[in-house]
Amino acid sequence: MATRILVVDRNVELCKSLGDFLERHDIEVSTLPNAGLLERCLEHSTPDLVILDHMQPGGEGLTALGNLRASGNEIPVIMLAESADDVDRIIGLEMGADDYIGKPLNLREVLARVRAVLRRAGTARPVSALHESWRVAFGPFALDIRSRMVHHDEQPIMLSDREFELLRIFVNQPMRLFKREQLAELMFGPKDDRMARGLDVLVWRLRQMIEVRPSTPKLIQTIRGHGYIFVPDGEQYVPRPREVVARVMDEQRAR
């Protein structure tokens, strides 16, 4: 049986070129111009994957994604965006997207990413156990996204909403190096003078609750000149060579 994909994008030319290309690789493609119709469409037909335009009118792309995940629908979703910058990408991934691709599209890249997402989805647990995927363990801790609770050896830890959201961002993207500005904007919204300071306080509070020695954190580590990184196994993070070069270049520009 051929793989079936639903492309949700109002750009008719993009849908046609993408559909023609994917169909030459044994992928059956159907299209939908409006994300507001996505849930109704999925009630009648279930494709293997959805490619969803981020910039639907009125933000309907992200709204549709959020509604799918809130209803428990775990169909794989790849988001498309005019600009796949870090903040947009993180927001989309946080809301449950499986991958993100920026426009203009490289059709071969789309094919590769579709195959990669479908491979990951193929190893997922059955639908009857999908709720378990909302519980993520790291060390002696477990974060339950649906109940918005964190447990340490089965004992609950009380976190504020913002502390929980920050930990959720870290846990969902382990070993990702976040700039302070990226995290601050995700947590506090558009830029203002208090963002960075507020983020640092939030990280400090979170460390008090989940680190054995908050003064020498192992889980939420600070990378000087870059930001923060979540290391689930608690090993000391060593920047890759390209990150060292980037830091040196940043320091040179700042002089």
Automatic annotation (TrEMBL):
GO terms for molecular function: phosphorelay response regulator activity; transcription cis-regulatory region binding. Keywords: DNA-binding, Phosphoprotein, Transcription, Transcription regulation, Two-component regulatory system. The keyword Transcription regulation applies. Gene3D superfamilies: 3.40.50.2300, 6.10.250.690, Winged helix-like DNA-binding domain superfamily/Winged helix DNA-binding domain (1.10.10.10). Residues 133-232 bind DNA. Residues 133-232 form the OmpR/PhoB-type domain. Residues 4-118 form the Response regulatory domain. GO terms for biological process: regulation of DNA-templated transcription. SMART domains: REC (SM00448), Trans_reg_C (SM00862). The keyword Transcription applies. GO terms for cellular component: cytosol; protein-DNA complex. Pfam families: Response_reg, Trans_reg_C. The modification 4-aspartylphosphate is found at D53. It comes from the Bacteria. CDD domains: trans_reg_C (cd00383). This is Two-component system, OmpR family, phosphate regulon response regulator OmpR.
